[in-house]
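User: Can you predict the 3D structure for this chain?
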Amino acid sequence: MSSRSGMIGWGAAYAVLVGATVCGLAAARHWALDAHRQQPADVAWQKYRADIQRQQQSGNYVVQRRVPTSPEPPLRVLLRDHFAALLAGCLAFCTIVVGFLAWTVSGAWAQRRKGGSRQAAAGPRDATDAG
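Assistant: Here is the predicted structure, written as structure tokens:
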């Protein structure tokens, strides 16, 4: 594989990964915001907050928890208010992973083409092979 075709291949893989990440997060955001617009999600979140407050007041708990201050579920706040930061973090992670894979695989491929793997696989020569 030539260097140019290798770069094109890695670029295409990166583009597919970025597209899948953006589309996947956008779909997850749409699904989560639609699901959390419904009343049952708010009711469940308020019930959870009330249960923690009741446990705190009664002193009957194994682990002490703080009562969440947000009146909205955390998933809604994350995907509505911090979506850009979440997307940037996911894209940064994808970039690091693809960059590392491209670097290691390209290096291993170049080493193999130079014949370095044959020498390493052969191991040290003994005195009996010197013949």
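Helices lie at 3-37, 39-58, 74-81, 83-114, 116-122. The two ends are 37 Å apart (CA to CA).
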